[in-house]
Amino acid sequence: MDTHRLKYFLRIAEEGSITRAAGVLGIAQPALSRQLQLLEDDLGIALFRRTRRGVELTEAGERLRASTAGPLRQLELAVQYAGSPVARLNRNMLLGLLETAVDVLAAPLLGSLTAVFPDATFSVATGSTEQLVEAMLKGVVDVAVINPVPDERVFYRELLAEDLVLVGGPESDLDPAQPIPFVDAVALPLVIPRSSAGIGTLLQNAALRAKVTVDHRTTTDSVSAMKSLVDAGLVYAMLPLSACRREIDQGRMRFTPICEPVLTQRIGVAATSQLDLPREVMVKVGTTIRDEVAALVKSGRWQAEFVAAGSWNPALSD
Q1: Per-residue pLDDT for the chain (318 aa), expressed as one digit of tens each?
Q2: Do 237 and 188 form a contact (C-beta atoms < 8 A)?
Q3: In this structure, what CATH number is given to the domain that contains residue 32?
Q4: What SS3 string covers the chain?
Q5: In the chain, how many domains are there?
Q6: Is the peptide bond prior to 261 cis by the omega test (within 30 degrees of 0)?
Q7: Integer Cα distance of 16 and 89 in angstroms
Q8: Do residue 142 and residue 218 come from a single domain?
Q9: HTH lysR-type domain location, by residue (predicted)?
Q10: Integer Cα distance of 13 and 263 in angstroms
């Protein structure tokens, strides 16, 4: 199958319009429509349905996008960097991932990094921001995706902002169409993070401003433990949607947005000044993480706001 047709398909899906996609790709709209028709003929399925605003994916189209976007991106990266000194890096790279971001980011990011650094191996540590910062300072982790921290030993570049939601068990009455005020959410039995960074800081600051007490039943820095307790119907939790999308889709959890105020966590890429990697490699690692996050946000797989600006280069930090 012609991979160009798959690229055209993905662009149409991103733009939601064949006309807009043709403009971005720099090809005539009839030619793009013809390529899409050939792809649908090859597969024997309809990939889009027409709407007043353009086109939207069919169920079969959604499945194709989910299964092809990552591999195509990794193939492009592998070809792009095949002759670069970056591609010849031959060592183990230590990555840290905020546990709330693992489900949405781990697989596509490792796929892209493997394509850029085909001779490297990767070790992945997950945890809270505090745990990952400590691991970076000890040299156990090279680069991490974390919440912001007020630590001058850590170079941090923000990537995205995403709102928290209230999640409950399958028997809860939470409704995505009916946001819950923060003061009502904290009156429910909650499981909250032990760590004071990230989500823990958001909850503490919002509670202080609202002059309320958070009614927590238990604390843990394990997102998996949080989700298990919520799934069992024992407690509620405040988490980003990306951390529990799978459980929600499977009917094991329900959710509703939080309002008055909206709680927004920020995530970025971080390293220390002692990072033992060549400058070109450091820049490429950060750029790959940034580009992967941007692609996930643009595709809708990560429901957040991409806020990164400029390049990531710890070697140039003060």
Answers
A1: 557 788 888 888 888 899 988 888 888 888 888 888 888 888 888 999 988 888 899 988 888 887 776 666 655 555 555 555 555 556 788 899 999 999 999 999 999 888 888 888 889 999 999 999 999 988 889 899 999 988 888 889 999 999 999 999 999 999 999 999 999 999 999 999 988 788 989 999 999 999 999 988 899 989 999 999 999 999 999 999 999 999 999 999 999 999 999 999 999 999 887 776 777 778 888 889 999 999 899 888 899 999 976 556 665 443
A2: no
A3: 1.10.10.10
A4: CCHHHHHHHHHHHHHCCHHHHHHHHCCCHHHHHHHHHHHHHHHCCCCEEECCCCEEECHHHHHHHHHHHHHHHHHHHHHHCCCCHHHHCCCEEEEEEEHHHHHHHHHHHHHHHHHHCCCCEEEEEEECHHHHHHHHHCCCCCEEEECCCCCCCEEEEEEEEEEEEEEECCCCCCCCCCCEEHHHHCCCCEEECCCCCCHHHHHHHHHHHHCCCCCEEEECCCHHHHHHHHHCCCCEEEEEHHHCHHHHHCCCCEEEEEECCCCEEEEEEEEECCCCCCHHHHHHHHHHHHHHHHHHHHHCCCCCEECCCCCCCHHHCC
A5: 3
A6: yes
A7: 39
A8: no
A9: 1-58
A10: 30
**Other C-beta atoms lying within 10 Å of the C-beta of residue 309:** 8
Same domain, 11 and 140: no
Q: Cα separations (Å) of 270 from 162, 243, 281?
A: 18, 20, 14
Co-location of 184 and 222 in the same domain: yes
Which residues, in sequence order, are bridge partners of residue 158?
A: 268
- Residue holding tokens 């733009």? 15
The CATH number linked to 172 is 3.40.190.290
Range of the domain at 156: 85-160+267-316
Distance separating alpha carbons of residues 86 and 124, to the nearest angstrom: 20
